[in-house]
Design a protein that fits this description.
- By secondary structure, the chain is mainly β.
- Helix content is 12%, strand content 43%.
- It contains one helix and 15 strands, in the order H-E-E-E-E-E-E-E-E-E-E-E-E-E-E-E.
- Strands 1, 3, 4, 6, 11, 12, 13 and 15 form an eight-stranded antiparallel sheet that branches. Strands 2-5-14-7-8-9-10 form a seven-stranded antiparallel sheet, with no helix packed on it.
- A hairpin with a 2-residue loop joins strand 8 and strand 9.
């Protein structure tokens, strides 16, 4: 009689555990983070005068051209970025002086509320928007780019961005998919020269980051 009871208890316990596991598998995982589907990155070809990072692999900590910091960012499908509330900070380690012209290129993809910030002529690579250290900051959204309080409409989806700073002429020009969207007078601030791209909020991604002295 005891053997039958023990077997019955074991069988009932196994059935309850199986049912509980089945129910848990059917419930949504509240900790899962939505993964944004990324477009196919374009191929790029830059000469030796450029510092270049294709984002198809992780930028090493001892890289001489770029430094990446942040939290919750990923390298995925040829892009560097964040799907959600994380952020990345990509700083160019080739810092131009206030009298040196430079060009920054990258492919951008932002979706929904995601956006990027592009910093130019910053006091240092640690500078952030609103920290009082000055510099020039552009904001890139899906279908919009903002500069100095003014916004311009740009194509939605992945786009190729080219930023040119003419130091002697103190002129800023920004091209999106080859079209000139920003052109204005732009004097260097604080004698700084650091250049960087950061993500303000995801989804926001970059690919094919390239930098050189000169325009």
């Amino acid at each position: 009689m005891k053997k039958i009871t023990a077997v019955t208890v074991i069988a009932l316990t196994a059935a309850v555990l199986t049912l509980a596991q089945s129910c848990r598998r059917g419930e949504p995982d509240e900790t899962a983070k939505e993964t944004v589907a990324l477009p196919q990155p374009v191929s790029a070809d830059y000469g030796t005068e450029w510092a270049y990072a294709g984002m198809d692999r992780q930028i090493p900590s001892d890289d001489n051209d770029f430094a990446v910091t942040g939290s919750g960012f990923v390298y995925r499908d040829g892009w560097l970025g964040t799907d959600g509330d994380g952020y990345f900070d990509l700083a160019c380690l080739r810092e131009p002086g206030s009298e040196e012209s430079f060009t920054l290129c990258f492919d951008a993809y932002a979706k929904g509320d995601g956006f990027l910030r592009i910093g130019l002529w910053l006091y240092s690579v640690d500078s952030l928007p609103g920290d009082g250290s000055g510099g020039v900051w552009l904001s890139y959204f899906d279908g919009l780019i903002s500069d100095n309080g003014e916004s311009r409409t740009i194509p939605k989806g992945a786009a190729s961005v080219r930023v040119q700073m003419d130091a002697p002429g103190q002129r800023l020009r920004v091209y999106v998919n080859g079209d000139l969207v920003i052109e204005r007078a732009c004097a260097p601030e604080n004698g700084g020269g650091a250049v960087k791209i950061i993500s303000g909020k995801g989804p926001a991604f970059i690919s094919n980051a390239a930098f050189r002295m000169g325009i």
